[in-house]
Automatic annotation (TrEMBL):
The keyword Lyase does not apply. Residues 18-86 form the HTH gntR-type domain. It holds the Pfam family UTRA. InterPro entries: Bact_HTH_transcr_reg, Chorismate_lyase_/UTRA_dom_sf, Tscrpt_reg_HTH_GntR, UTRA, WH-like_DNA-bd_sf, WH_DNA-bd_sf. Keywords: DNA-binding, Transcription, Transcription regulation. PROSITE patterns: HTH_GNTR (PS50949). This is GntR family transcriptional regulator.
Length: 250
């Protein structure tokens, strides 16, 4: 590993004129893309990298911060810096963002960009099977894990289900559980998107960065719709999988 980093850093430095932190950033990115650094692997410490490549800790820290912002590295307090693992989300199981991240040992967080009570729109009424004029609660959240932005979510819930906007503190599904509500089925649609300027700013990504859009409607056993969510996931962090089965031969 040390030999690879030294030779790749020299190659980057010889190939173009740029600040040293950019050479290191490209070196580490190439190491990840070429499998020299694998998912979950710890990086050498800042002091060790600096000594190996004759760089200051400020330069090393700046290169690492850029890759953390890109989602390629994650920093865990007291443990170090690690190559980010892509999050595999199954389309075959009904799970929440919080469930998915905690199952991978990550710390999911929500930053509320908007949260409030309002009257249902025609589109929301159709999605939630509500009558015109019904009250709904809307949430617009930035979802992060270990400080890295992973998704933007716009969620609409019937006010008759949640009651008050502040009942959701971090996870909608945890709020459901506290109220004795258990969603059992969901319909989802997925398509590729490019983040617009405002979304990219919130996600700390370049405008036009690839993403995945998922629209979800979640149901209870009695058929009531309790959630209408439109999520925008960063494309470099998620793999979506689904189990497929053929129809039995007659």
């Amino acid at each position: 590993m040390q030999d690879y980093l030294q030779s790749e850093f020299r190659r980057q430095s010889d190939a173009r004129r740029a600040p040293a932190y950019q050479h290191l950033r490209r070196t580490l990115q190439h190491a990840i893309e070429n499998g020299e650094l694998t998912a979950g692997q710890a990086l050498p410490g800042e002091r060790e990298l600096g000594k190996l490549l004759d760089l200051s800790r400020v330069t090393v820290r700046k290169a690492i911060a850029g890759l953390v912002g890109d989602g390629l590295l994650v920093q865990r307090q007291g443990a170090g810096t690690f190559v980010a693992e892509r999050i595999v989300k199954s389309f075959s199981r009904l799970t929440s963002f919080t469930d998915d991240l905690r199952a991978r040992g990550l710390d999911p967080r929500s930053t509320f960009l908007e949260r409030g009570l309002g009257e249902v729109t025609p589109e929301e009424a159709m999605a939630l099977n509500l009558s015109p004029g019904a009250a709904v609660i809307r949430y617009y959240r930035l979802r992060t894990a270990d400080g890295v932005a992973l998704a933007l979510e716009r969620t609409v819930v019937p006010a008759a289900v949640i009651g008050a906007p502040d009942l959701v503190e971090n996870s909608l599904y945890e709020a459901f559980a506290k109220l004795g509500i258990r969603p059992t089925r969901a319909l989802q649609r997925l398509r590729a998107i490019a983040f617009d300027a405002e979304q990219a700013r919130l996600m700390n990504l370049p405008e036009g960065a690839p993403g995945l859009f998922i629209e979800r409607r979640t149901f209870l056993d009695d058929g009531r719709v309790v959630e209408f969510t439109r999520s925008f996931y960063r494309g470099d962090a998620y793999d979506f999988v689904a189990e497929l089965q053929s129809e039995p031969t007659p």
